[in-house]
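I'll show a sample.
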Amino acid sequence: MEAAEGEPAPAALGQRLAAGGQGHVLRFWPELGGAARRALAAELRDMDVAEINRFFRRARGDGGGGGAAAAGLDARMEPVPRDVLGSASRDRGLLPRWESRGLAEIAGSRVTALLLAGGQGTRLGVPYPKGMCDVGLPSRKTLFHLQAERLRRLQQLAEEQHGTPCHIPWYIMTSGRTMESTKEFFLKHHYFGLKKENVIFFQQGMLPALGFDGKILLEEKGKIAMAPDGNGGLYRALGVHGIVDDMERRGVQSVHVYCVDNILVKVADPRFIGFCLEKGADCGAKVVEKTNPTEPVGVVCRVDGVYQVVEYSEISLATAQKRGPDGRLLFNAGNIANHYFTTAFLKDVVNTYEPRLQHHVAEKKIPHVDITTGQLIQPEKPNGIKMEKFVFDIFQFSKKFVVYEVLREDEFSPLKNADSQNGKDNPTTARHALMSLHHCWVLNAGGHFVDENGTRIPAIPRVTNGRSDATPADVNDNLKDANDLPIQCEISPLISYGGEGLEKYVKDREFRTPLIIDEDGIHELVKNGM
């Protein structure tokens, strides 16, 4: 079969691949049609085989960050010191100052939000990006929609306080699998009321999946098995697509980076930004308190004096169970992939530090074409690796690192699994978390809920064990209706970003549920004519 005109000849292509020990990927070239050949040639043309081999050697040499690399880790770990820690519960008196500082930066158009949105909804059982997921809220708003409206409300708050128009650019990093569908979704929904020029899409890189021997795997006879390079691929993508340069042109100085799947995320949180600015930080991590020693979440800490995230699987149970004098877990700063960076720090990372970052190895079951038989293999156990970097890998390069602790029930409820899996972190838990938070907002603003008989539903306060600085119990445990479900209440982000400004809607009023408060007013969705 002849190669198409303008297509690299198999010999030229094969020579480069063979030199890197990857010539096998052309094994089925004679069987491919013209279109398949052109697609494979294009895929291989952009692939630096020597670099991939180097990544593999470095990653496998470290064992992926576990095993021997983690030996003795417990003895080298130190908890986050109080002088770099800000807390939404323990520093309540400072919150107004931090918020004011953050809003002033937003009013000056010096703040941006950067969304990590490369994930598909595969584990959710949907064939589209996670940000397009509807978790069943009364409004049917998606994660993208909620986040966009939070940005709009923040712009409004900053403009009201400072009297000057402003904007918060929104950079959205997608993967090859989510780019087109994400852009189409935003276009269809008119960018959810944001200006098109302030929503900037860019794509993270992809790396081939490899066998344990370092050989590139084929997904099909004419297609490489590819995978996104992890959320830490952000830093390479920032350079490749000129994103930091664009931030500088726009006058951006503070960057809030976060993951798409947290329904409670406070996008461009002015308190977090204000806290980091007050501390003079170039890098900050927002965390939630880890209350269960075995909770599968990484912790922010120091190892050999350097800040990093240590994965839960790398810590011994004895260390995980250690407690301080106040009874809290010693290593309790649970990482939620929610970070602050200065633009200057990101520029240094892109230009200097990114090449030093080492890939983490994840052993996976990777469907692939058997090079000998041409048959598609569906492995029953891990047969290869995917290499990725993590967004927190750059903490080590920070000159002034800080940590900001927030309440889980206020700010963290990730969406990772389908409801059918009967676990946690699913559409139901996400929906309940948002409605429970909004229920609290109504109560705090002086509103009340009544049942079908007009009797007030008692508001059970959050448990604090008599300690003003204690961690409240999970709000889902104690703010429920008679059917043991969270009160159905949804407040549009366009009305309130964090519970502010609701008194004029709810003070001294009684409501039946479901209750929606949005820009069109107050809606009580009464059923059966009641």
Summary: Residues 287 and 336 are 6 Å apart (CA to CA). The radius of gyration is 25 Å. The first helix runs from residue 10 to 19.
